[in-house]
Amino acid sequence: MSDRSGKFGGEDPFEIARRWLAEAEESEINDPNAIALATVDAEGLPNVRMVLLKEIEADAFVFYTNYGSVKAQEIEASGKAAFVMHWKSLRRQIRVRGHVEREEGPQADAYYASRSLKSRLGAWASEQSAPLSSRASLMAKVAKLTAELGPNPPRPPFWGGYRIRPVEIEFWADGAFRLHDRFRWVKSENGPSWHVERLNP
Ligand SMILES: Cc1cc2nc3c(=O)[nH]c(=O)nc-3n(C[C@H](O)[C@H](O)[C@H](O)COP(=O)(O)O)c2cc1C
To answer: SUPFAM superfamilies recorded for this chain (predicted)?
Structure first.
């Protein structure tokens, strides 16, 4: 912990994550908040896909999705997930592992309401991860729901957030000669504090 300073400095890993994301927002061409979200199926076979990180809270990370999707089924079965964010322009990554719970209250309503009308209707129309016979059938469903739901659709009951409460967060930054810097924060068993240690690259 002694030589942790500069970009790795600070006593709150969520504050460091917010700072790194803010820097990535300046340098990345697209989607600086994209995370590769990993889950496992019932056999323990890993699964991974990109989603957008929408909030970094005091002690959690939040993203939004369809509760019927494969990722949701896997999260609900295990209660766990991991993700990595990688910023090519900054040559940095953040890795997170933790426990997951739904965010389906007013916060999810507010985020849903902030999306464009087309995105809100798209959330209603898509049976995410289920087979789809054709793009035309999806567009027909969007048109039907647009007429039925009007300009202020409510948040679909099958769509909302997941909150990942980390047990581990690792900050990684590229170093000369592949001697990268890594700091792993591990949540203490009791209480809110963290143990930080430098790892070999
Ligand atoms: C950059 C990027 C961002 C994405 N963001 C989201 C997202 O925030 N929520 C979501 O449900 N899917 C998002 N997707 C689509 C997912 O990668 C995935 O295709 C979808 O959620 C279905 O995954 P599943 O079948 O494993 O549940 C995104 C894809 C990309 C490439």
So the answer is: FMN-binding split barrel (SSF50475)
CA of 51 to the centre of ligand 1 (A): 5
Query: Which DSSP string do the residues of 102-164 spell out, in sequence order?
Result: EE-SHHHHHHHHHS-HHHHHHHHH--TTS--S-HHHHHHHHHHHHHHHTTSPPPPTTEEEEEE
According to DSSP, the β-strands at 34-40 and 46-56 are antiparallel
Nearest residue (by CA) to ligand 1, atom 12, is 51
Average pLDDT, stretch 132-137? 98
pLDDT(2) > 70 = no
Beta carbon of 92 within 6 Å of any ligand 1 atom? no
Q: What is the mean pLDDT of residues 60-78?
A: 98
Nearest to 9 by CA among 189, 171, 128: 171
Instruction: Round to whole Å and give the CA distance between 139 and 126.
Output: 10
Ligand 1 within 6 A of 51 CB? yes
Fold of 6-115+158-199: Pnp Oxidase; Chain A (2.30.110)
pLDDT at 3 over 90: no
Q: What is the pTM of this model?
A: 0.97
